[in-house]
Design goal:
With 703 residues, the protein is of the alpha+beta class. The protein is built from 18 helices and 25 strands. Strands 9, 10, 11, 12, 13, 14, 15, 16, 17, 18 and 19 form an eleven-stranded mixed β-sheet that branches. The chain has a four-stranded antiparallel β-sheet with strand order 1-2-4-3, covered by helices on one side. It has a four-stranded antiparallel β-sheet with strand order 5-6-8-7, covered by helices on one side. A hairpin with a 4-residue loop joins strand 7 and strand 8. The longest helix has 36 residues.
Length: 703
C-alpha cells in the first residue's frame, strides 16, 4: 500500500487492540519478539461506570422487581460504595495501558527497522521505562547468538532510528552502539545542544564533511572576545595528509571557505599531520614596507635578520657553526630588491662584529659598501675577482690546517662572509677572458681556476668559518651540480624576489608553484625559507644605500639617513687572516681602491648621431646578463663570438643538452644557429659554461 493509501485510524486501532498475526505489518518470516497488545483497563472502566451510575440503575430496577433483578441490585449497591477506589484503579490501569501501548509502538517500530536494515529477527526488544511519549527513550535489542551486522547495515539502522525520531521532534540526538560480543544493540538519547556555531564555523564543518580529509571535525581553538581567531581541524592521518601538494590545496580551500575576516587579517594554516590535526588561524597581513629596524630584533649574534613574514615573524640567516643553512642564495631580477637584501644582511653582520668582502661585476650593486665598517674589500674587476676567489680558497685551506694543528673546534674560528653578486655574469666574464683575453690573462685564469675554487668553497667553506652569500638573477642546476657536488644542500637559506618561472620554482623550492604569484607591485616582496624549513611569503627589509658620497647621500630622505646612522657600528669589525694569500690580496686591493678614489676619473658622456640610415650594431664591452648554456631555450637571443673578439646577437634555433646517465648532470650543451642559406652553425659549451645575453633576462614565468 502506498503512503497515500495508508489509513492512520486503522493502524492505530490495530496497534490498540492487537492482532493475532504478529508479522502482518512487518512482512518478514520468523518468530517475532513483539507480542499482540491487549488492554487491561476496559473491564475496570465498565465496573467504575456501573459504580457511579448505581443510584440511577436502582431506580430503574424498582420497576422490574424480580429475584434476579434484586440480586443484581444488591451487587450494584455494594459496588457503589467502592466507586472512588474503583475510579483510582481505573485511572491507574489506563495509565498503565497507555505506557504499555507506547512501549509496544516503540518495540514494533524497532522490530520493523532492524528487520529491514539487517535482515535479522530480534530475539528480545527492551525499551526504557517509562517510555517516551513521542519518541523512544532508550532500548536494548537482543539478537540471535552470532548475528553479524555489517557497518553499512548498522548505518542504515541508525539513520532509520534518527529519521523516525526527527519526524516528531529535533530535541533529542540518538546514539546507536552495536555490542557484537554480547549480540545486542543499545540505543540511547541525549538532549540536542543548540547550535551556537558561527556561520564561518558551520561553513567549514559542512564543507569538510565531504572533503578530502578523513573524518574531519572542526572546533574553535581561540577567541578574541566573541570573534573566532583560530579553528582546530582534527582528522584521521592518511598518506595524502602528509604531502605538501595536498596540504597546499587544502590550505587554499580553507582560506576561501573562511572568507575575508572583519579584522583585515588573513587565514593561514599550520599542519601537524602526524598528530592528526591542523590549525587555521588568523595572521597579520604582510606589511608593504619594513624599514631596517635600528634595534637588534634577535639577540643571537649569529642570526642575521632580513625580512618579516606573516604574524610579524622575523626571518633570519643562521650563520652559526651548528647551522644547517650556512650559505645564503638570493634569486631576483634587476630591480627586484636583491641589492637591498644584501645590504641588510651585511649591515646586520657588521654591527654583530662579523667582517665581509665581496665581488660586484656590475660595479653598481655593492659599491656603496666599500669603506663601510667591517668591509675588507669590494672587487669589481673580473681578473681580480678570480684572484679573490682563489685567495679565499687558500684562506679556507689555511683555516682548516690551523684547526687540525691546534686541535680546536671549528666554532672557535672567527666568521667571514664572502659575497658574490651576479655570479653568472662573473662566470661569463671569466669565460670570455679565457677565450679572448691576452696570453697573460688566459694563463692567469687557467692557473687560478676560479670555478674550481668556487666549487670547493661551496662544499668545504662551512667548517672553516667562511659563509657565502650568492646573488643570481635566476637559479639553475649547473650552479650547484657537477663540480659543486652537494653545494645546493649547503645553500639552505634561500630567498627569491619577484615571480619565478616554473623551472626556477622547482629548482629553488622543489615546488613548481611556490614563488610564482608574488605581488610585484610591492617592492621587496618575495619568498624566503622559513625557520622551520618551509618556504613562506615575506617582506624584505628596506636598507638604503650606505654610500657616504655626496651624490648618493644627498638623495636620501631624513628617515633613510637616520637608518644608516643607526646601523653603523661604533667599533669596526676586524678580519683575522690565516693565509698570506688573502691578506696580501686585501692589502693590494685596498691600495688599488684608494688610488682609484684619489686619481680615478670617468669621461663625461657624449652624444653621437648617425649620418646614415643603417646604424651599426654595437653591444659594447659588457653585457646585461648571463645564464648557463644548458638553460638556453629555443628562440632565445644570445651573444655569439664572431671570432674576432666581438659578440653579436643571434637567435637559437635548437638546443641539445647531453647529461650523465647516472647523475643526470649536464656534460655538454650544443646550440644551433641558422647561418647563410641552409647552413647551420653549431657551438658546443662545457658543463659549466655560460651564455651571454644582450638584454637583461626577462624570461616570463611559465603559465
Amino acid at each position: 500500500m502506498s503512503r497515500s493509501q495508508q489509513d492512520p485510524l486503522k493502524d492505530f486501532l490495530v496497534d490498540l487492540f492487537g492482532s493475532d498475526k504478529p508479522h502482518a505489518r512487518t512482512g518478514h518470516a520468523g518468530e517475532s519478539a513483539i507480542r499482540p497488545y491487549r488492554m487491561w483497563a476496559p473491564f475496570a472502566v465498565i465496573a467504575t461506570t456501573l459504580a457511579f451510575f448505581a443510584p440511577r440503575l436502582l431506580e430503574l430496577a424498582e420497576q422490574f422487581s424480580t429475584p434476579q433483578v434484586d440480586g443484581a441490585v444488591s451487587a450494584v449497591s455494594a459496588v457503589h460504595e467502592y466507586r472512588w477506589p474503583l475510579a483510582a484503579l481505573t485511572l491507574g490501569l489506563l495509565a498503565c495501558d497507555m505506557a504499555r501501548f507506547l512501549t509496544h509502538r516503540h518495540r514494533a517500530g524497532l522490530d520493523a527497522q532492524i528487520r529491514q536494515s539487517t535482515r535479522h529477527t530480534p530475539v528480545k526488544i527492551t525499551t526504557g521505562y517509562p517510555p517516551g511519549i513521542t519518541t523512544l527513550r532508550s532500548a536494548t535489542i537482543t539478537l540471535a547468538r552470532g548475528a553479524i551486522i555489517r557497518p553499512k547495515e548498522l548505518d542504515e539502522f541508525t539513520t532509520a532510528v534518527r529519521a523516525s525520531a526527527s519526524r516528531r521532534t529535533s530535541k533529542w540526538t540518538y546514539t546507536v552502539v552495536h555490542d557484537a560480543h554480547r549480540d545486542r544493540i543499545r540505543i540511547t538519547r541525549t538532549l540536542t545542544q543548540p547550535d551556537l556555531r558561527s556561520p564561518r564555523h558551520k561553513a567549514l564543518a559542512n564543507s569538510l564533511r565531504d572533503g578530502p580529509l578523513k573524518e574531519p571535525a572542526v572546533s574553535v581553538a581561540s577567541l578574541d572576545g566573541d570573534v573566532e581567531t583560530a579553528f582546530k581541524i582534527t582528522f584521521t592521518p592518511t598518506l595524502s595528509s602528509g604531502a605538501r601538494g595536498f596540504q597546499k590545496k587544502v590550505d587554499e580551500a580553507l582560506a576561501a571557505l573562511a572568507g575575508e575576516h572583519e579584522s583585515g587579517r588573513t587565514w593561514a594554516t599550520d599542519w601537524f599531520p602526524s598528530e592528526g590535526y591542523l590549525l587555521l588561524s588568523l595572521r597579520a597581513p604582510l606589511p608593504t614596507r619594513v624599514d631596517h629596524p635600528l634595534e637588534l630584533v634577535d639577540e643571537n649574534l649569529r642570526h642575521l635578520p632580513y625580512a618579516t613574514a606573516a604574524s610579524e615573524v622575523n626571518m633570519f640567516w643562521d650563520i652559526s657553526t651548528k647551522s644547517n643553512k650556512p650559505h645564503c642564495l638570493i634569486v631576483g631580477p634587476t630591480g627586484g630588491g636583491k641589492t637591498s637584501v644584501i645590504r641588510t644582511l651585511l649591515t646586520e653582520a657588521s654591527r654583530r662584529g662579523i667582517p665581509f668582502l665581496g665581488v660586484d661585476p656590475k660595479m653598481i650593486e655593492l659599491d656603496g659598501l666599500e669603506g663601510y665598517p667591517g668591509c675588507a674589500a669590494i672587487v669589481y674587476d673580473a681578473v681580480r675577482s678570480a684572484m679573490l676567489v682563489r685567495a679565499l680558497h687558500s684562506e679556507m685551506m689555511a683555516r682548516n690546517h690551523y684547526v687540525h694543528v691546534k686541535k680546536i673546534e671549528p666554532s672557535q674560528l672567527p666568521l667571514l662572509i664572502a659575497v658574490l653578486d651576479e655570479f653568472f655574469i662573473l662566470s661569463g666574464k671569466w669565460q670570455r677572458l679565457a677565450k679572448t683575453g691576452d696570453d697573460e690573462t688566459r694563463d692567469l685564469l687557467k692557473e687560478l681556476d676560479p670555478l674550481g675554487a668556487w666549487a670547493d668553497l661551496a662544499v668545504l667553506a662551512r667548517s672553516a668559518g667562511i659563509r657565502l652569500l650568492l646573488g643570481v638573477q635566476r637559479p639553475d642546476a649547473s650552479l650547484f651540480g657537477g663540480a659543486s657536488g652537494n653545494a645546493r644542500d649547503n645553500f639552505g637559506t634561500r630567498i627569491s624576489l619577484g615571480n619565478l618561472s616554473q623551472d626556477g620554482a622547482m629548482m629553488l623550492w622543489g615546488d613548481s608553484q611556490i614563488g610564482r604569484e608574488i605581488d610585484t607591485s610591492v617592492p621587496g616582496r618575495g619568498v624566503a625559507l622559513g625557520n622551520d624549513g618551509v618556504p613562506v611569503d615575506a617582506q624584505m627589509w628596506w636598507t638604503p644605500n650606505v654610500d657616504p658620497h655626496p651624490n648618493k647621500w644627498n638623495q636620501l630622505s631624513t628617515s633613510e639617513k637616520k637608518i644608516i646612522d643607526g646601523l653603523r657600528p661604533q667599533q669596526e669589525p676586524h678580519i683575522a687572516f690565516y693565509s698570506t694569500e688573502l691578506r696580501h690580496f686585501i692589502e693590494s686591493e685596498r691600495s688599488v681602491a684608494v688610488a682609484a678614489r684619489a686619481y680615478g676619473r670617468a669621461p663625461e658622456p657624449t652624444v653621437l648621431g648617425h649620418h646614415d640610415d643603417t646604424p651599426t650594431a654595437d653591444v659594447g664591452d659588457d653585457f646585461a646578463d648571463a645564464i648557463p648554456a644548458s638553460a638556453v631555450t629555443e628562440g632565445m637571443t644570445v651573444l655569439v663570438d664572431s671570432g674576432h673578439g666581438n659578440e653579436h646577437p643571434a637567435t637559437v634555433a635548437a638546443v641539445t643538452v647531453i647529461r650523465d646517465k647516472d647523475s643526470g648532470a649536464v656534460t655538454e650543451t650544443t646550440l644551433t644557429f641558422h647561418g647563410a642559406g641552409r647552413v647551420k652553425n653549431h657551438i658546443t659549451y662545457g658543463p659549466h659554461e655560460v651564455v651571454l645575453l644582450p638584454e637583461p633576462d626577462t624570461t616570463a614565468p611559465a603559465p
